[in-house]
Write a structure and sequence with these properties.
By secondary structure, the chain is of the alpha+beta class. Among the domains are: about 120 residues, no CATH class; about 150 residues, Jelly Rolls; about 200 residues, Rossmann fold; about 130 residues, Immunoglobulin-like (Sandwich). It has 14 helices and 56 strands. Strands 9, 11, 14, 16, 19, 23, 25, 27, 28 and 31 form a 10-stranded mixed sheet that branches. A 6-stranded mixed sheet has the order 1-32-2-8-4-5, with helices on both faces. The N and C termini lie far apart (about 75 Å). The relative contact order is 0.08. Keywords: Signal. It comes from Dokdonella immobilis. One of its GO terms (molecular function) is cysteine-type peptidase activity. This is Peptidase family C25.
Length: about 900
């Protein structure tokens, strides 16, 4: 419950990446005399630590045999006093060790840090002098010391989501709570605690408790004068009612009180917290709804004695001379002080030990061998990325376990002309946040590269590794995620708690393991904090990115390899065919979203792209036809898939949650069943929850689309939490993504800069390689109307000097419905095509073209409005200058829409 006790000695975990261990083996003799190197030393709990020579040189051979005076230890860039036990020879040799007081890492607003479990200390060498622990012994004339101790008890069991009213962007409030209390709980929350060496005769024990209100009372206007407090919590100690805390609001609050020390004991205490039922003053038959999160509790008490295993204590007042305390046990008394003094005690015949004087407020740590050992040590390279000799277009930050798997993608982009840097996330922590895991390190890395490195400035950042908001997954295996549905009885408003039922990762599998490989930021949206990679691309003040950021949310090398393989295949060997001009628009049953989707579809269609619309209907008993249409369309191939509507529970829905009928439009299982290997789309999921990639135990539709090998999507752009989709944002995205040659990451950067809604900028993230260029037709053809009013036809001009291949022209009616497709083989760049006549005098109102040059591999597209065709005009239509073709025989085949692909395949076989 408390984390102030010294941890038991345990083996040090040596974190040695392959390349570092290889270097250590190859160059150990050379480095041994060089006296150089840096060692990252991680600890989890506060205590007195020792690190032996053998553990140091096993990771950093260059630190063997150094002058003891040159050794230095830093934390957050500040030197920490150390004692070097070197046997008096002045060198750090076998059998020697360093000692220091290690402090637990606290968050800026929380006891446990939000982003990191371990504090990091950096051991290095430099010419002295450096901070050292001084040894002092008592002098005669000691006086009894006034010692007190504060014990903090906290458990990280439930995560709450704080909205913009409770959390400022960039701050790190305490999100993890011990327990949820409500008036409906049948039993009080119990908690057992000990107060070691409690001095019962000292009088008072201070208690401090931290809560956060969740609910807020609704009071009828005419009963405002009867308004009760929002919250009331009863606090009991050892079956004694101590206090009733009352307050209003949803802010974090702390309450303090003092108890008689006689009510407590050194071992076996218990506290209880409960919320009593209260009747509403205006309706005695109803109970007030009261929901409170309990966060932590602290006890401050006088200490009557010490031993070698005692938790730390503080001097209540300064001792001008030596001070005495009652010492228990036979261990020689020894106290380390945070004032940089190691105090050797002397045992007196009356059971007391005397120590050298200390200032008031000094924290003293009793210690006895074996001292605590660090949790892990690893080689550190803090200066590796501080100032390279060249700049880079593309920065890849990877977890060390995934670096080998990402290298083929880095090499692929290098061969395409980009300068690519692949960095180990540990090196980024070392160089840009003093070795402590935090997203700030990545942000500092990108800003440094942008502002200080030589040209070129970075255009892309790829994060290789998943994130998780539960950084203590390995510690709390049975941690419950407060998965509460919307429940008006307890006012668990949607978005305030972390859990949303979804497909869980299989327990015991690699995917279920700790997923926090590359951390992400948390942005406080109106519905609670949400994962955001956006700040990594921001290089100046504000929140608009300048660097395009993408992520591979994976934990296994095989998952990286699968994404890399389909990304490279997409960019080098995509299946040919008209799927490269196809865009699918999907909505739920909402008329608003249908109108929004229509606007986008019309804009895309006018540029010569083929549009498929799949709109759900509230009148349908099930969604089988829509599910089938989505699957068939994806399997046939799509350039883009745009969904706008209701999402959540990690699916696309046909409407708001309604248990009376099926609303699952597309699910995780549907993604896994796709067979669209060579025809991958980019998915724009403009809805809620499609990509909460920081969920530690459950999969999402955005992640599934990207991670599926040889199927799914080449990239996904989606939100990590609840939001209101913007039609303007979608239109800007689609427009930018369809620019020929545009990378998807830079298209997103440009689109985000058009937004005024910060929530959308922060919450929507790219899963995939930001340097991908959509395999849309890479060139634009030109279309014009023929001048002959008696023979309506379309003049086609294809780019380039020559052309040889197939041309497909879709003829559409006024509702953009496909009337027919004309497919013909062409061996010239300029020609005309008759506009088909349809039954009942129906006229085509729009034509779009797709052409593929089989010799060069280049494809192209165009679109043209046919409004006015069939209307007689005196002067007909004017041909563009120089484009009138010579008369020639024309042969046109009218085929169904997929005839182009079949014809292309047949032609390829004949060749």
């Amino acid at each position: 419950m408390s984390n102030v006790n010294l941890p038991r000695p345990a083996p040090i975990r040596a974190v040695t990446p392959f390349r570092n261990s290889l270097l250590a083996i190859l160059f150990a003799p050379a480095l041994a005399g060089a006296c150089e190197g840096n060692l990252n030393v991680e600890i989890e709990h506060t205590g007195v630590y020792a690190l032996g020579h053998e553990d140091v040189v096993a990771i950093q051979p260059g630190l063997a045999g150094c002058a003891s005076s040159d050794l230095r230890l830093t934390n957050l860039g500040v030197e920490v006093p150390i004692a070097v036990a070197d046997g008096g020879d002045g060198r750090f040799d076998p059998g020697d060790r360093i000692e220091w007081i290690g402090q637990q890492l606290h968050g800026p607003q929380s006891w446990f840090d939000t982003y990191s479990i371990n504090n990091s200390y950096m051991l290095s060498v430099a010419p002295g002098p450096h901070a050292r622990i001084r040894d002092e012994r008592p002098i005669p004339g000691s006086k009894p010391a006034a010692l007190e101790r504060t014990l903090h008890f906290e458990q990280e069991n439930l995560m709450i989501r704080l909205d913009q009213n409770a959390q400022k962007p960039g701050e790190e409030p305490d999100l993890w709570q011990w327990a949820k209390l409500t008036q409906a709980d049948p039993k009080p929350l119990p908690g057992r605690f000990d107060l070691p060496e409690l001095q019962v005769s000292a009088g008072k024990v201070g208690v401090k408790i931290n809560f956060r209100g969740i609910s807020a009372l609704f009071v009828p206007y005419d009963h405002e004068s009867q308004r009760p407090h929002d919250h009331r919590v009863e606090f009991r100690i050892n079956d004694r009612l101590v206090e009733r805390f009352e307050w209003d609001g949803k802010d974090e609050v702390s309450r303090e009180l003092e108890l008689p020390a006689a009510w407590l004991k050194a071992e076996g205490n218990q506290f209880e917290l409960s919320i009593p039922k209260r009747a509403t003053p205006w309706n005695p038959d109803n109970s007030l709804v009261d929901v409170v999160m309990f966060n932590w509790i602290e006890f401050r008490y006088a200490v009557g004695s010490l031993s070698a295993t005692s938790p730390p204590v503080q001097l209540d007042r300064a001792s001008n001379g030596s001070f005495a305390v009652r010492w228990q046990g036979e261990s020689p008394p020894l106290l380390y002080g945070d004032d940089g003094v190691r105090r050797y005690g002397e045992l007196q015949g009356n059971g007391e030990a005397t120590f050298a004087a200390a200032p008031a407020g000094t924290t003293l740590y009793a210690a006895v061998d074996p001292l605590a050992r660090p949790k892990s040590v690893r080689a550190a390279r803090p200066a590796l990325w501080s100032m390279p000799t060249t700049g880079y277009d593309y920065l890849i930050v990877s977890h060390p376990s995934l670096m080998e798997a990402i290298e083929p993608l880095a090499d692929f982009h290098r061969k395409r002309g980009l300068k690519v840097a692949v960095a180990d996330i540990n090196d980024i922590y070392d160089g840009f946040n003093f070795g402590i895991p935090h997203p700030r390190a990545i942000s500092n890395f990108v800003r440094t590269a942008w502002k200080d490195w030589p040209a070129p400035k970075p255009r892309f950042l790829l994060l290789v590794g998943d994130a998780s908001f539960d950084i203590r997954h390995e510690t709390y295996n049975d941690l419950a995620y407060a998965k509460f549905a919307n429940n008006s009885t307890e006012l668990n408003f949607s978005g305030h708690f972390s859990g949303i039922p979804a497909t869980p990762y299989k327990e015991g599998s690699a995917a279920f393991a700790d997923r926090n490989l590359i951390p992400t930021w948390q942005y406080p949206s109106p519905e609670g904090q949400s994962a955001s990679d956006n700040p990594f691309g921001v290089v100046d003040d504000g929140y608009y990115p300048s660097v395009a950021v993408g992520r591979f949310p994976v934990v296994e090398p095989a998952e990286v390899s699968a994404i890399v393989a389909k990304t490279i295949t997409y960019l080098t060997r995509p299946d040919p065919g008209i799927w490269r001009r196809d865009v699918m628009f999907i909505t739920d049953e909402s008329d608003y979203f249908k109108k929004s989707s229509d606007q986008l579809a019309n804009s895309v269609s006018s540029r010569g792209f083929s549009v498929d619309k799949i709109y759900a209907s509230p009148d349908e008993a099930d969604n089988l036809s829509h599910q089938s249409a989505i699957k068939d369309g994806l399997n046939a191939g799509q350039l883009l898939v745009h969904f706008i509507g209701h999402g959540g529970r990690f699916i696309w829905r046909t409407g708001p949650p309604d248990l009376r009928k099926n609303h699952d439009l597309f699910t995780l299982d549907d993604v896994s069943e796709l067979q669209n290997g060579g025809r991958l789309p980019m998915v724009l999921s403009m809805t809620c929850y499609s990509a909460p990639f920081d969920n530690p135990t459950e999969d999402s539709i955005g992640e599934r689309f990207l991670r599926e090998a040889d199927k799914g999507a080449v990239a996904v752009f989606a939100a990590s939490w609840r939001n209101s989709p913007s039609t303007a944002f979608s239109k800007s995205l689609v427009d930018e993504l369809l620019v020929p040659g545009a990378t998807i990451g830079e298209a997103i950067v440009r689109s985000k800069k058009t937004l005024q809604d910060r929530t959308l900028v922060e919450m929507y993230n790219l899963l995939g390689d930001p340097a991908v260029v959509l395999e849309r037709p890479r060139a634009d053809a030109r279309l014009a109307l023929d001048a002959d009013p008696w023979r309506p036809s379309v003049l086609v001009s294809l780019p380039g000097r020559t052309f040889g291949g197939l041309v497909a022209m879709d003829w559409l009616d006024e509702q953009d419905a496909l009337l027919s497709t004309t497919v013909r083989r062409v061996d010239e760049t300029v020609f005309s095509v008759d506009i088909p006549k349809f039954p009942d005098g129906k006229l085509a109102k729009f034509v779009r073209l797709y052409a593929n040059d089989e010799r060069s591999g280049q494809d192209m597209s165009a679109g043209l409005s046919l409004a006015g065709i069939g209307e007689r005009r005196s002067n007909g239509w004017r041909w563009p200058d120089g484009l009138r073709p010579a008369p020639r025989a024309q042969a046109a085949d009218t085929l169904k829409r997929d005839g182009f692909d079949r014809h292309a395949a047949a032609s390829a076989g004949n060749d």
